[in-house]
Amino acid sequence: MITEETVICWSRDGALARIDIQRPDKRNALATRHWAAIETALDAIAASDAQIVVVSGVPGAFSAGADIDELGQLLTAPEAFAANSAQVQRTQLKLQRLPQTTLAVIDGACVGGGLGLALACDLRLASSRSRFAITPAKLGLVYSADDSRRLLNTVGMARAREMLLTGRLLDAATALDWGLVNQLAGEEGIEELQQAQVQQLLATSGQARRAIKTVLGHLGGDASISLAQADAAFNAAFSSSDFVEGAAAFLQKRAPRFS
């Protein structure tokens, strides 16, 4: 399916769903309409039986953040600016709460709202040429509480403070060292690393991964997930079909065949 004049494309291939941002002339900068298209794709994916969702950009740019042309207009229209901010935060929160396991595949610029999008994913892979920054302070703006919490949960308070207060640009090696990305592609390349990560995830239980996201969501400060819900996700796993299969596979010394 193609939306927003092919800038935001999403597709399904069995257990794998993809959201591709394709705006290379703007380094994948995102305007309000693009965030809305991503939200539409997320709604469709959430209702599907996909297990893994890959979010990626184009060679050289995951996303450079806000569309500067639109931003100039929004700065003179407070209501439109507020609507844009609400759309961005709603889309990122929806991505964070997606039941499927999400993977950001980053090759190049990952800045501002682009990094916010990546932080809303469960895992992040990057190429060695990737660069990362969060720059609202350079515009006299403030990162939202939800965005700041995702950054804090990922890199810790001291490094979150440094990134937010200085707008520092991080290279890929530093991002890996700080825990901003989970893995860095070497000679094998970002596509090969992505395929290996997807296969590793698909070898685990989809039911368990969804429940794990519920537990981690509660621990990460998501107000929509209570302790009771996290506990229920933990307890329900013991009566799940995937646990039955996982236990049988363990005893029989074979690879599990999860539903």
Automatic annotation (TrEMBL):
GO molecular-function terms, A-Z: catalytic activity
GO biological process: isoprenoid catabolic process
Gene3D superfamilies (UniProt xref): 2-enoyl-CoA Hydratase, Chain A, domain 1, Lyase 2-enoyl-coa Hydratase, Chain A, domain 2
Family that this chain belongs to: Belongs to the enoyl-CoA hydratase/isomerase family.
Protein name: Enoyl-CoA hydratase
